[in-house]
Write a structure and sequence with these properties.
Blueprint: E1 2-4, E2 13-18, E3 21-26, E4 41-43, H1 47-50, E5 58-61, H2 72-88, E6 94-97, E7 102-105, H3 106-117, H4 124-127, E8 129-132, E9 138-141, H5 144-147, E10 150-153, H6 161-178, E11 185-188, E12 194-199, E13 205-210
Parallel strand pairs: 4-7, 10-13
Antiparallel strand pairs: 1-2, 2-3, 3-5, 6-7, 8-9, 9-10, 11-12, 12-13
Amino acid sequence: MGEAVGNEQASKRLELHIDGMTFDLVGLDPAPRIAVPEIRDWRDIAVEVRGAPLVGVGLAAGPHIEAGKASTPVVRGALRLARLLGDAFAGCAGVCWVPSGVAQSKPAFVDAVDRWLGGGPMPTTFVVTLAAAIDGAIESRGLAWFTGQEVRIEPIVADDREQAKLLAYRLVEQLIHRGTLEAPEQSTAPDGRVLRLEPSANRRYVRVWLA
């Protein structure tokens, strides 16, 4: 599945190949340890594991795919490789997607990835999560890694929290595939309401209002 790189860099990273793509595995001995990322959402991972000293290894896109690291084929390859590595490391407690801050237990991660590889939906709730803003809006975390923008469901639209979350993930899935929103446009919510989507003034958010 992988091979060591040149002598000068062999102690720093391991080059892995999958589906015609190259990824770098970092954090293995004798290379320096990598810091365990900030985890905002622990899923199906025991409390005692969360509080234990954790050691992590990381995957990074190789130089030839770096520019397309947020594309669906590269993400698919990365998650497939992470799934295989999880099997290779018997002590793997979970897998973390850094942009969303989600850490998921190995069995749940394997199930989600296998369903995607088998023709099911992308594990959107793993790569993007949702959080409540102070003003009552719902904001995504992790979508910006794909598009440069997060979704923000404004409070007037987020009055029904469960419907707002469904709407947020529906928009997240659309935006992952279509990319950055450059100009205002209309959309329809699952409950039939007509919505206005517009980039925020600083271009960091896709703000969602009632039209």
